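Hi,

I'm pasting everything inline rather than attaching a file, because the server keeps stripping attachments. The sequence lines come first, and each chain or strand is labelled.
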Amino acid sequence: MDRPNGFKFVGTRPDRPDGMDKVTGRAKFGADATAPGMLHAAIVRSPHAHAKILKIDSTKAEAMKEVKAVVTRADFAEGLTGENWNILENVMAGDKALYDGHAVAAVAATTPLAARDAAKLIAVEYEVLPHVTDVDKAMAEGAPVIREGAADKSVPDGLHANVVRYHESGHGDVEAGFAEADLVVEESFKTEATHQGYIEPHACLGQLGSDGKGELWCCTQGHFIVQKTCAALIGIEASQLRVTASEIGGGFGGKTTVFIEPVALALSRKANRPVKLVMSRSEVFRATGPTSSTSMDVKIGMTRDGTITAGEGVFRLQGGAFPGAPADLTAMCAFAPYALKNVKQTGYDVMSNRPKQAAYRAPGSPMAAFAVESVIDELCKKLDLDPVEVRLKNASKEGTKSSFGPRFDRIGLVETLEAAKAHPHYSAPLEPGQGRGLSCGFWFNHGGETSVSLSLSEDGTVALSVGTPDIGGSRASMCLMVAEELGIPYENVRTTIADTATLGYNDVSHGSRVTYASGLAAIKAARDVVNKLCARAANKWGIDKEAVIWEDGCAKPAGPNAGDFEPLPLARIARTMGRTGGPISGHFEATPEGAGMSFATHIVDAEVDGETGQTKVTRYTVVQDAGKAIHPSYVEGQFQGGAAQGIGWALNEEYIYGEDGRLQNAVFLDYRIPVASDLPMIDTVIVEVPNPGHPYGVRGVGETSICPPLAAIANAVSDAAGVRLTELPMSPPRILDALERQAHG
Amino acid sequence: MSMVHVTATVNDDEVEFLCDPRETLLDVLRDRLGLTGAKEGCGTGDCGACSVTVDGRLVCSCLMLGAEAEGKSIATVEGIADGENLHPLQEKFIEHAALQCGICTPGILVATKALLEKNPDPTETEVRYWLAGNLCRCTGYDKIIRAVMDTASDLRKAS
Amino acid sequence: MVEVTLWSGLKSFTDGQTTVEVEATNVGEVLRGLVELYPELEAPIEAGVSVAVDGRIIASSLTEPVQPDSEVYLLQQLKGG
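And the predicted assembly:
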């Protein structure tokens, strides 16, 4: 960390710069844009889980005077390969509909109601094919093949064609490790798919002229990837398409790809008018990325003193009708918190007739933690060991050879465990009927391509342009870091999310990377500006640039010239910059590769109602390493939000498919995310073990918070009700079943 | 289909509009009156992002037809601030960082304002149950509840 | 020479080898060296990999330096939510 004198702004909690916009309703989200002559679009979706598309007849729809364009797959680019082909196939079906809700055609009309009416008039003839939606069934002999030849060479011979990628890693000899153990526990787990559940449905407004020039407004976690992908999918040049990111109403990983954006552009190109396309909630559930569902086997051996002798896991993830389920990440995260001599993990990426899975907050890791941390809890119970002490005894630290291979750099797992142990929650007495659970969680974090620019105004204020959409208050953090470097008030910095035409390429706001990577870039851009400011001062004073330092927002003569000249504040230099060498701006472009890895420990108390099977979370504490919290309120917010989503995943949320392969709960009433009355306050402890890869020590905080809750709650349920739930969600029927089995067992 | 002519009051302004009989009040507010503060998160009355009050009563504007607004007085998030002055709830939401993405914020502000007008001294549990119809996916509700409780306490002291 | 450890799922591309020695001074040369030795690795590498160098995970930058005694692991591509 290179701020030896501490921080002036970083670590404070100023109002977010977009606060006023957000509380008055004037913030513009995806669906809030309009354009002159705008049309509205609707998408026709498959009612079948798996079907050949024999014929699409849009004659009746096109006969409506309000209808201006209809598109099908024929209106998109041909000859794509790799992931672009997968995305196009998901955006608009080709020969086959691969899941319930798969888009097969789209229509643009003068009003939203006319578009919906017209969509109903598009007749699609299907030949229904056998389908499979369960991960284990999709791997079993005789399961319908989703796509022949989709598997890569990593898959061992003899596996079903739906297994498309295979992962294996680890070290040591697990069998020898199990032989050393005093107790080995082996258990199988299943988790259902959950949806990111952002409250804002996907929405966009696109315009594409016959000159190949386009404009697109959309809610996305990354407008540069939208630009790149849309250009490929509709066959235009990327730089001819300018994409502007709207305010985004939640993403959590689900808005890191495209669904409707290429469709709006294709319709616009055909109709020669701007086209707005907004998904309904049921379209969001049926056709945008849920997580993978999983089937997992975990086996762990432990000695009586709590030393883990070996860990082995098999992780099967279905990722919908496309390759890409994060089985590799699940496998790599599973045992990461622990220093193991013997560890082996295997992952299977499996296709099924479900929507293409999308990233969801630490993709793949929460499920792995659910399985592994549940087994560790069982071992602790059976060996009568304290769960924190056992985890401390085995915890990964700097230099530990990780379960996925390389040695860890500086990490803060031990610190989170120590803080959890010291927290009053861990030693508080439980009410009768309550149980307590604990779990650790791990996520890699990410850097990614990053560009920012920083420009000075003559009045001494500065404008920072970043290319990473603000999903949780990141503009406040950016302003803080720039204010810190320049030594000017927080309010004098304005951060804007620049469009794709005004800034260099930026990777998506994902991988908990924004405060880390855009923050690092903002700091470097500010230092670039400081260099230029110092040079202007040196020039004015007639001394060497090296003899000028920047302190408290002023250029000051240093070294032999110290005290010779009055300090020059930023605003004074800025006022005359046009006449002293031209406008001053700073910029930074890089792919920072020092995203520090992140660990958390969660403690949860829960009570289980034996009559109804309902589980109530009564107390919750999140302890997580943030490296350095730039704006602590928004760090806490990430901790709390991840915990709440984890609670939903653990207790309520699941994709329910019928025998017909159709999604049965595609509305919020039936897909129940936690509401205010379901949750307690969520305590937070911010641990700060600086990340050596960031000038202030920042580690991303967005994702790790969703890793521990699934297991922590399962462990609390086990403690409260004496039953070990191995399937998620731990919904009332499952809890009642488990209680009944226990009573009769 | 013939349009319906409607006269109503929105945030104390007289408004007149024509709408399709199938259009919801939310459609009318957003598409015909340009008031995009109320959001459509579900269209089925489950998420509360479209919350407005109609003659003082909290409703999901996605569940009411535009045509039903005839003669009614509607209040939306755009009308909460008094000119340049934010309502204390709005100030507290910013101060407590009670929003992350902000998509649920308009609905939650409309709902909590209605709560505090009815019950100036709610318990935490009462706030949680009142807001059970307003989904927030980002915050885990913690900071929202704190902002509401803090506003209620301030407003009681002020009155 | 730099010793590179591959995840064992790649064994089918490397005649069963999980550690491979290549001549390299940066991440790009590591990847190029691997493909020269085992051309079939091109597909998984093109599809996206990360390289861990002394505990730091390099997700995309090919210019990150590698020392002869560096601990180098080929990992599957990391993506986030």
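Chain A touches chain B through 60 residues (CB under 8 Å).

If the labels don't parse on your end, tell me and I'll reformat.
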